[in-house]
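sry for the spam today, last one i promise. struct tokens for design, 186 residues
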């Protein structure tokens, strides 16, 4: 019986020393995008409502935009998982920046829920980039698209960037789902 007590004491000591070797904060900071594999219907409805309201606003304006930022000759499924995460992070950076612009009070209210959701997703993606691939270099496809995004930010009007981001939100959400799958997606 004393032998069993010694073994239990040894196991407790070993557990405590391993707990000190792996801080709890390090375990919490792992990358988990699984909640984006299947988007919640009320989030999708909020995005749809916002997009429809924005399209109605667009009908009343005379914006002429040339940006084809979201018309890519490749599919996100062709990218590696770290590239997917970097792509969606950049897309969500643009979307959240555009949704934070001053707007009509009715539209400001409609965009609150999608903005909150997209901001949280962007922060989760940033955590993944920081923990899983801090030194990852983007592929040629992604690097070219990121350069195209930077050029668009410098050359396009804010209104055109806003329209491009909002009108392509469902593509971004699909890209987010694909990044969350961590395997082949379609």
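last one done:
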């Amino acid at each position: 019986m004393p032998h069993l007590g010694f073994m239990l004491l040894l196991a407790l000591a070993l557990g405590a020393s391993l707990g000190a070797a792996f801080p709890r904060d390090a375990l919490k900071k792992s990358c988990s995008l699984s909640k984006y594999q299947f988007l919640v219907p009320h989030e999708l409805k909020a995005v749809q409502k916002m997009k429809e309201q924005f399209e109605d606003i667009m009908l009343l304006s005379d914006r002429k935009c040339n940006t084809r930022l979201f018309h890519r000759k490749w599919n996100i499924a062709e990218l590696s998982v770290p590239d997917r995460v970097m792509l969606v992070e950049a897309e969500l950076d643009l979307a959240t920046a555009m949704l934070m612009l001053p707007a009509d009070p009715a539209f400001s209210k409609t965009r609150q829920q999608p903005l909150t959701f997209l901001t949280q997703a962007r922060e989760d993606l940033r955590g993944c980039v920081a923990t899983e691939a801090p030194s990852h270099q983007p592929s040629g496809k992604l690097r070219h698209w990121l350069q195209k995004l930077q050029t668009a930010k410098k050359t396009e009007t804010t209104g055109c960037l806003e329209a491009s981001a909002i009108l392509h939100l469902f593509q971004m959400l699909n890209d987010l789902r694909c990044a969350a799958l961590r395997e082949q997606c379609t």
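The first helix runs from residue 2 to 21. ok im logging off now
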